[in-house]
Each structure stands twice: as C-alpha cells, then as structure tokens.
Amino acid sequence: MFPVESKSYVELSERLEALSRIEQLSVAMHSRADEHRQVALMFAYCDESGDQRIFAVCGLMGRLAEWREVGRLWRVELLAAKLDAFHAAHCEARRGAFEAMERDQRDHLQRRFYQIVAQHNLWGYCHGAFLQAFEANKELLAKYQREKPYYLMFQTLIERMALDMDAAGLPKTEQITFIFDQQVQFQPIAGRIYQNLASGRATKITYSHRLRGLAFISDDGVPELQAADVWAYESRKYLSDVIVNHRPDDRWQYKLLKDSGRMRIDGCTADSVMRLAHQLGWSLS
C-alpha cells in the first residue's frame, strides 16, 4: 500500500480515474491473471407499450478486451453525433435527444451503433416472459417473493450463460462478472438469488464455479450498458411484435444483430413458468 500523500498513490489514483467505469469495476473484481476471463453485460428491459405482455431480461457476453473496444468505438460515435448517450428506445420513438431528428438521421445512428455490437465477438441472450405466465401462478410465486418476472428471467439468463461456457468446454477457472443496469426495486432479492447460486449451496445448481461477481450500475455514461440496451430493445421488440402480435419479421435493425449468428432468444409461456422454476432449483411446493 502507498501512503496517501505519496507520489505513487497520486499516480495510481490518476490512472484509475482515467479508466472507464467498466474498466474500474474490472480492476476491483479481477486480478491481472483474469485478463482473458468473460465479462457479461446484462440489461433488463420492461416493455410498457402495446399489449404489455412481454418482460425480457437480456444480456451480452464477451471478453474484457472485446468490451474495451466496444466502449472506445461507442464513445467515438457519441462524440461524432454530439450525444451524451445512445438509448435504443429513445432513438426509435424520437424522444429526448432524438426529438428533432428525421427517420433517415435516426436510421443512420442506429446503423452506426448497432454495427458496433454486431461486428464484435459478443454473445447475445434474451429470456422473455409472457406476463400471463406469471399472472396464472402469481399466488404461489408470491409466497417466495418471486411474483415479478424479473427474478425468474434474471436467474435463467445467468444459468444459460454459465452453462454455455461449460458446454463450450472452457476451463472451469473461467468466470463471468455480471453487470446489470441499475434496478433499485429488484436489486435486494436479485442479489440474494445470485449469492445463493454463487455459494454452491443451492440444489440442482452445477455452475457456481462460473460466477465471479455481480454489480448493478446506472447506464448513464456507460457505453457498454448502452450496447446491452440495444440488444435488449431489439430482442424484446421481436418477441412482442413477431411472436405475440404476428407481425412480419422484417425489421432491419434486428436482422443486423441476428445475422451475426451469436444471438439467441427464449420465451417463457404460461405452461412452462413453473416447470422452469423447478428446473432452476426453486422450492415452490
């Protein structure tokens, strides 16, 4: 350790302040030997438009070096567009900083930012719940403070990422740091769920060795979470528009991401929610 008044301490502080928020978090949670481990950027998006039948928790997973480059390019595009942040829903709906922009301008921005996600080695996951699935089982789920779809989708997404690493044959020492967009109303219970999974004490949980850490941070000024927001918005919109409302699957923005071959979407229907809960090790009887 350095004395706080020493030159070494001042230099170290300046170096840390120069890092992005994601890099600062990585320094706190990873050692130098962890350079090539996976970092998962998670984002929960709740659709409040249309028929309000879909809630999705979505995430992108990739190595820290990949995320650094995504963050760098994202900041370049923000500077060029004179934006403080790029939020997919605001751009699509012409809200906030995008209010004065015509469709072709917003298309251009979408293409620039979406390509950053599509052209990097990031793996996309989306687990969506049809809200009627939770309404049908609300009473039983409420006994365990799990009536909100966020919690089941939260655990499902963590499990799928971890199990995919096992299936890929990656060394058991490779772990995932999960970074979720800040959700104050969900964080206490979600944090307890995660600790239960990571502790290795939960029944039917075989992937505790993959879980490195969990953090909830605001996406303000965090390009990596804004990138996760892009996938969250487009995958949720696909579930709502195409799967639920049977509209044509002709959205170029979604196709740009899907054509990378690294994106997957899963839905949870009314007849599967309790089965999924049992498979995840929840004691709901």
Biggest sheet, in brief? 6 strands, mixed
**H/E order of the elements?**
HHEEHHHEHHHEHEHHEH
The total number of structural domains is 1
Strand residue percentage = 15-25%
Could you tell me the CATH topology label: Nucleotidyltransferase, domain 5
What sort of overall outline do the alpha carbons produce when their principal axes are compared?
globular
What spatial order of strands do you see in the largest sheet? Answer: 5-4-1-2-3-6
Sum up the structure in keywords:
globular; 285 residues; 6 strands; alpha/beta; disordered N terminus
Task: Please render the helix and strand layout as text.
Elements: H1 7-17, H2 21-29, E1 38-46, E2 54-63, H3 64-81, H4 88-93, H5 103-118, E3 123-130, H6 131-136, H7 138-142, H8 149-167, E4 176-181, H9 187-199, E5 211-217, H10 223-244, H11 252-258, E6 263-268, H12 273-279
Parallel strand pairs: 1-4, 3-6, 4-5
Antiparallel strand pairs: 1-2, 2-3
Helix pairs in contact: 3-5, 5-10, 5-11, 8-9
Tell me what you see in this structure.
It contains twelve helices and six strands. With 285 residues, the protein is α/β, with parallel strands linked by helices. The chain has one domain (37-279): Nucleotidyltransferase, domain 5, CATH 3.30.420.10. The protein has a six-stranded mixed sheet, with helices on both faces. Helix 9 (187-199) links the parallel strand 4 (176-181) and strand 5. It is globular, with a radius of gyration of 20 Å.
